[in-house]
Amino acid sequence: MKTRVLIVDDSATMRALLSRMLGSEPDLEVIGTAADAQQARVMIREMNPDVVTLDVEMPGMNGLDFLEKIMRLRPMPVVIVSGVTRKGAETTIRALELGAVDCYAKPDGSIMNLLDHDGGALANMVRSAARASQWRGSGGRAAAPSPAAAAVSREAIALSAGISAGRTGVPAQLIAIGASTGGVEALHHILPSFPQNCPPTVIVQHISAAFAPAMADRLDKQCAVTVRLIESGMPLLPGHVYVAPGNDRHAVVGTAGRLTATMKPGDPVSGHRPSIDTLFESVARSLGPAAVGILLTGMGQDGARGLLAMRQAGAHTIAQDQATSTVYGMPRAAADMGAAEKILPLPRIAERALAVAGL
After folding, report:
1. Which residue stretches of 255-345 are H helix?
2. By CB atoms within 10 Å of each CB, which of 32, 65, 105, 274 scores lowest?
3. Where is the CheB-type methylesterase domain (predicted)?
4. Kind and range of the H or E run holding 62
5. What is the domain-level CATH number for residue 314?
6. CA–CA dist 76, 178 (Å, integer)
């Protein structure tokens, strides 16, 4: 059965290109295109698409306002198709916070570059969105954790784990996080809980390089900790969160004299660059039991093997559970291979990681 897609974009040329790109896939069907939110609203009601691709900069009601209405009134998987200008990137990150499944970057220059350089990326995002577990069976997205649900005490988690620090009795010195589809929303639930004295935290989130700076900037504004993009060779400091830029290098952690992060060239690992597996495996080698690994929502298996390496090195490892994952691919792979010491819902992950760090 084909995945039915509605394309919403104010550009007739872009609508035609996206229709051509997606319509050529045997498992996808473009059932319609809309030029604005008003037209899209009618088509959603009449056609009930499986996935919507949505431009965020449109006349009349903009994409963000429309997305908010979709998620409140008729929740469904949405893939944002956005320009890579600063304004477009910031708006896209906000859309991911609101519940969009993924973001697709329109190229700089001629939009005809889409046909030459897409490589099936948009189609894969649509497929992933169609499988997003938040919309299955319930008719809508999983609700964001309420403050009451999120307020799980550190003491309760520490007692349930039987520990409050690493297996060596030393609090964890670093937290490593990997995420993909749905990860931006998940990070915005987790990181605001981190205090200013938290261990240095390194993140690989599968996201376009065009959107990574805006993601880091927005997290920095919303969190007590300082959030920065990784620069090769930079020291890792307490109270800081470091996000790997989406580019052609891998993020790795080392401890030659001091704890540092470096961006290293290399082929894609587990289909990605930067790869979560590469980050986790470097943490396992460098820190052993003095680390926490967290694998969040995402498509595929990147991070599962690396999380297993961390667990085998004595680190504490956490995977997000199925109920709160947008796509239960990466966490499932980790659970299946025994890489996750704990499988937890999103509201409990930060508290568990901080308890292991002795906070």
Report:
1. 276-287, 304-312, 330-336
2. 65
3. 168-359
4. none
5. 3.40.50.180
6. 25
Query: Confidence class of residue 108 from pLDDT cuts 50, 70 and 90?
Result: low
Q: Kindly list the distances between the CA atom of residue 181 and the CA atoms of 37, 59, 204, 302, in Å, as whole numbers in the listed order.
A: 25, 28, 12, 12
Cα–Cα distance between 330 and 340 in angstroms, integer?
11
Helix 86-98 to helix 63-73 angle (10° resolution) is 10
Same domain, 151 and 114: no
In a domain, 264, yes or no: yes
**Distance separating alpha carbons of residues 271 and 300, to the nearest angstrom:** 9
Residue 8: domain span? 3-135
- Catalytic residue annotation: 180, 206, 302
Q: How far is CA 180 from CA 64, 183, 251, 296, 342, in A?
A: 21, 5, 15, 7, 19
Contact present, 100 and 129 (Cβ < 8 Å): no
For 319-334, give the DSSP string: EE-TTT-SSBSHHHHH
Token pair, residue 261, equals 């992060």
pLDDT at 172: 83
Q: Contact at 8 Å (CB) between 138 and 128?
A: no
78-82/51-55 β-pairing: parallel
Q: Are residues 336 and 312 in the same domain?
A: yes
Please report whether residue 142 resides in a domain.
Answer: no
Tokens describing residue 190: 């987790």
In a domain, residue 303? The reply is yes
The tokens of 196 are what?
């200013």
pLDDT in tens, 314-348: 999 999 999 999 999 999 999 999 999 999 999 99
- What is the side-by-side strand order in the sheet with 342-344? 226-229, 240-243, 201-205, 174-179, 291-295, 316-320, 342-344
Residue 299, classed as helix, strand or coil, is coil
Regarding whether 84 and 120 lie in a shared domain, the answer is: yes
Residues 185 and 91 in one domain: no
Tokens in use for 328?
Answer: 């239960």
The predicted structure's pLDDT at residue 111: 63
Residue 333 lies in a domain: yes
What share of the chain in percent tops pLDDT 90?
65
